[in-house]
């Protein structure tokens, strides 16, 4: 088949290379903490941004040509996107992809015709996957773009819309299983509200939970053995979304008995929109046993919306990979839910974006491993809580203390000394030394 991109396979050439189309830090076979870098970093391509987004925004039309030689809004174009995606993944050494249903094909007016098109394109994708080391990380249904979902999908006030959402989820699960997907994501793009004056929150959240329970039941019935994911996001497009952040999502899953089947898909840009750091939501997911997969991107602190930029901030990728390594890894992958900036519109720019992101995470992995091997930060953390390792502290941790026993201890002790210094500045200096020394 004729290649769509006049670009050679991207290779690792090291930090001394001046070749823009080469990895400087992502060396897939390099051993880091006992296993190859590519196993720590199971990268994935987001179908919607890389193959569908052409730079259109609310202020202007498309700047990039994503036709890939075919007329848009046709099945030929859908197949051309498959060809382009697989060529890019092979040239970049990316082994996974993620998709929404309507990323793959133009949606028809009739859901039966939409499903027929999905069958056709998924057959084409399955054939392309044969003999290639390319796999599906996760699938999902787009339950936010079509006007029918203006009030949400699972949270819709219309029973008919709720049923239509269920039909899309069913088909997206069928496709995920067909393509061997490791996970299935619920991103509640419009599962929220603009004003409480017209919203029954309890009613809507219960309906969302019931839809997820039906999805789990159906998925297990058709042989899906992977994880279901919630992808927390606080706002945009809705003013308030029910999956606001990791802690909110964890509470929801436990309240409705979904925590045995669901984990979280944490996105960097969504965490910062919620007023958290990326590593905060990763830590909250991890300590609750729900760190599943990651959408690897970054936002712009000067803008209040989801900019989905390719990650370049090595402090952020280092702290991310520190959380991942300390948690023992992830069951999912690192999906580049990221797009080039609107003025970066050429084919080369598509590759530059992935090279930037893959190198930023590779460098983050290397630096996170060095921080762990250095041991000073972990050692400080252990010492900081050492008062709970013996005496009254050990009794507290073992659940043997009572309010009365603690009160008696405090009365005998008198005024306690100040706690040990938090030494934030020292720890940040250590991190700088490890990263750049």
TrEMBL record:
Enzyme class: isomerase
Keywords: Isomerase
Domain of life: Bacteria
Record EC number: 5.3.1.5
Protein name as catalogued: Xylose isomerase
Organism field: Anoxybacterium hadale
Protein encoded by which gene: xylA
């Amino acid at each position: 088949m004729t290649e769509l991109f006049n670009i050679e396979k991207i290779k690792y050439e090291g930090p001394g290379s001046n070749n823009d189309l080469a990895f400087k830090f992502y060396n897939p076979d390099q051993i880091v903490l006992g296993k190859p870098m590519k196993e720590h970093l199971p990268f994935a391509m987001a179908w919607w941004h890389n193959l569908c987004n052409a730079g259109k925004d609310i202020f202007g039309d498309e700047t990039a040509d994503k036709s890939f030689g075919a007329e848009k809004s046709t099945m030929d174009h859908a197949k051309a996107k498959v060809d382009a995606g697989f060529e890019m993944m092979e040239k970049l050494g990316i082994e996974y992809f993620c998709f929404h249903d309507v990323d793959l094909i133009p949606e028809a007016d009739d859901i039966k015709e939409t499903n027929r098109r999905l069958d056709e394109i998924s057959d084409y994708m399955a054939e392309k996957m044969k003999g290639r080391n390319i796999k599906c990380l996760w699938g999902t249904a787009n339950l936010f773009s079509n006007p029918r979902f203006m009030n949400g999908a699972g949270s819709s006030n219309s029973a008919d819309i709720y049923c239509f959402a269920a039909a899309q989820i069913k088909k997206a699960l069928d496709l995920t299983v067909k393509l061997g997907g490791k996970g299935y994501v619920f991103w509640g793009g419009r599962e929220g509200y603009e004003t409480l004056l017209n919203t029954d929150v309890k009613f809507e959240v219960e309906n969302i939970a019931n839809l997820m329970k039906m999805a789990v039941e159906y998925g297990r019935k058709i042989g899906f053995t992977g994880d279901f994911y919630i992808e927390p996001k606080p706002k945009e497009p809705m003013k308030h979304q029910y999956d606001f952040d990791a802690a909110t999502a964890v509470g929801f899953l436990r309240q409705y008995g979904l925590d045995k089947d669901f984990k979280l898909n944490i996105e960097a840009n969504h965490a910062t929109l919620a007023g958290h750091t990326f590593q905060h939501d990763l830590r909250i997911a991890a300590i609750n046993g729900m760190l599943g997969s990651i959408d690897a991107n970054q936002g712009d602190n000067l803008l209040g919306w989801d900019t989905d930029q390719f990650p370049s901030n090595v402090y952020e990728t280092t702290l991310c990979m520190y959380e991942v390594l300390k948690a023992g890894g992830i069951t999912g992958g690192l999906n580049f839910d990221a797009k080039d900036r609107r003025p970066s519109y050429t084919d080369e720019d598509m590759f530059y974006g992935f090279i930037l992101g893959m190198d930023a995470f590779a460098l983050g992995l290397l630096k996170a491993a060095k921080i762990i091997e250095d041991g000073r930060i972990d050692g400080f953390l252990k010492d900081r809580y050492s008062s709970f390792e013996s005496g009254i502290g050990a009794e507290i941790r073992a659940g043997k203390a009572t309010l009365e026993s603690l009160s008696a201890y405090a009365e005998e002790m008198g005024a306690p000394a100040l706690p040990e210094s938090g030494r934030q500045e020292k720890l940040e200096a250590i991190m700088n030394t490890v990263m750049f020394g």
